Write the structure tokens for this entry.
Amino acid sequence: MATELKKKYGLLTAICMVVGIVVGSGVFFKAEKILQVTGGNLKLGILSWVIGGIIMIICAYTFSIMATKYEKVNGVVDYAEAAVGEKYAYLAGWFLSTIYYPTLTMALAWLSARFTLIVFNQENPETSGLCFALACFYLVGSYAMNALSPVIAGKFQVSTTFIKLVPLLLMAVVGSIYGLSNGTLVKNFTELVDPSVFTENNLTPPASNFDAVFSAVCATVFAYEGWIIATSINAEIKDAKKNLPRALVIGSIIIVAIYVFYYVGLAGAVDNETMLVNGMTGAKLAFANVFGNIMGTGIFVFVIISCLGTLNGLMLGCTRGLYSLSTRGRGPSPKVFADVDKNTNMPANSAVFGLLLCAAWLFYFYCASFSSFSGKLGMFAFDPTELPIVTIYPFYIPVFIKMMTNKDFKGFKRFVAPVLAIAGSIFMVIASVKAHAGEIPGYLIIFAIIMVIGVIFMKKKDIGSKIKA
């Protein structure tokens, strides 16, 4: 018999959970991208981190309002069901299960492999077959940990939550001091990178400031993603109606501050030109400049552990993707994918399917971006670390609209917060169009095909009384 969740988390614990869930590998990866699209303009980069953070804060706060009303509800699928309806929630869940989580998870496996090879000084690691072979190894390892030993996976997740903050805070503080003392930080703030650097190194020159900010904000979504998961702990927070909104807002502000100061710390550790030319290897150089080669490499290993921790958490979502739909009687073979293994207490069939989806997206990513086959995919070669994430924002909009029709909410919570959240979601869509105009048609075709397949399996089926949705 199911028991009611106890109110065991106070405000401080809830804030730590929000920070721990969101802070991950994205900031290490996207700091380089933001520097490139802004042409080394540090001020525009910081502005982009702030804008992306504000959108996260607004959307997180708006969802927290719903969480205080639906205390038993957790996750974006359940919020969509409560606000809009079962069929819409199913479509959102299908998207999360087949596109959103698998693309994010495979991207984290690739990032973990790429950073690992950087530590071992391999040149151009992202283009090597070894990088993708190692990414497959990390995917299988993360799956095995979650599927065979959920307890160990949980302990690994807790440990990496603290480890991932180490390189961020060290670079934020020590890098800024280092940069102020030798003038690098002031130089990066006041001087732009010479345009010839882009030509000489085959880099895309920066767009106008307006377009650059849109592209950079689009890049921040990968680093800020994960806040929606934090709303799932509402039933276990003491005085949730007050503390959950506070935790989400305070936690989000802390995250924005950490990311901005880390970005500033990088600018103090190495000049913008070096970062632009060397990419993520430039981040390793930054740690080496500030802390020395040995200690800098050691701290950079923490970055790899941070990526693996985020990979572990995302794999948890992948393994439960079809299970969450099957418990509602929807999706392909609900009885099969709703089955839970008695020994591991894991949805084994759903977990295997999630792993195969991650592997398929990783193979597609390799073919589209780095293999000799990449040029033949044309419009179907798109960035899987941004477009699938941005796509979740249009799914939020109907939920926010329905909130405004709910008379249980009053004043600011009923109208102002949802309107601001809708505006932020629309901004993200516009940013993705600005940043990925050439990639969007191909992505939308693939997105439409996958969603049509989902519609085929939408009809609700009877899966037996023993399974509780």
Notes: The chain has a mean pLDDT of 83.
